[in-house]
Write a structure and sequence with these properties.
By secondary structure, the chain is of the alpha+beta class. About 15% of the residues lie in helices and about 45% in strands. The strands form 2 sheets. Strands 2, 3, 4, 5, 6, 7, 8, 9, 10, 11, 12 and 13 form a 12-stranded antiparallel sheet that branches. The chain starts with about 25 loop residues before the first helix and ends with a strand.
């Protein structure tokens, strides 16, 4: 992930838009909710996390954990671009911080050689203005405690299919997604994002994750990745 923009503008979500008899059809509520979430995403760009923790799990065929690596990062934003610094990395109880730092340096060196064309977080969250023209929404579904809106993102470098869940105040609560088409060497993948709320009501991404299966030739691996973001502030 290159960077993860925060969501904000609580005032835009302050009106009571619960799914009552007065709120109209699910489609009407979904349109109002979505528009407010897009505004929140745009207005919340200045909220950025200072810490990130990434947990990578290798799973067996039954989904049981075989190996776990947790890496903690400090995040900074020189020139407006996110920079990550490895603070600590532990694999199955063993400190592997130096290896993690060396691996990151190699990855950054490859990235500096040119744009790799891969999708990043801004291409996954469907509220981003950068991909707005590539997002289409499906029929909204009203539940007892939330409104779910399916969507599709179609980009030249890939796309995704997912569902955003809103609570009854109109706030985006979470989303589920999968990449479509799947990346090379990945045969199965599903992901989630969870949104959190700041003290002033601004909404940010607090957790992001995905799991699936991939590999090369006869070597296959099931995996799970969880990213947790904290210490958000206006930067």
């Amino acid at each position: 992930m290159k960077k993860l923009l925060a969501l904000g503008l609580a005032a835009a979500l302050s009106l009571p838009l619960g799914l009552t008899a007065q709120s109209g059809s699910p489609a009407a509520s979904a349109s109002a909710y979505w528009d407010k979430a897009v505004a929140a995403w745009s207005r919340g760009e200045s909220w950025k996390p200072a810490r990130m923790a990434v947990t990578f799990e290798e799973l067996d065929g039954k989904g049981s954990v075989k190996s776990t690596t947790r890496t903690e990062y400090a995040l900074s934003y020189p020139g407006g671009e996110m920079k990550s610094t490895v603070l600590r990395s532990v694999k199955d109880g063993k400190d592997v911080t130096e290896k993690a730092r060396a691996d990151q340096e190699k990855m950054e060196a490859r990235g500096r050689s040119g744009e790799d064309g891969r999708m990043d977080a801004e291409d996954i969250i469907p509220f981003s203005a950068r991909i707005a023209a590539s997002v289409t929404r499906g029929e909204a579904r009203a539940g007892a405690s939330r409104l779910s809106v399916p969507y599709r993102v179609a980009l030249s470098k890939g796309g995704s299919v997912g569902t955003v869940h809103f609570d009854l105040s109109g706030r985006p609560d979470s989303l589920e997604y999968t990449l479509d088409p799947l990346p090379a060497m990945v045969s199965e993948m599903r992901g989630t994002a969870v949104f959190g709320t700041m003290a002033d009501g601004s909404v940010v991404v607090s957790r992001f994750g995905f799991e699936g299966e991939g590999g090369f030739l006869f070597v296959r691996m099931r995996f799970s990745v969880r990213m947790e973001f904290s210490d958000h502030a206006r930067r």
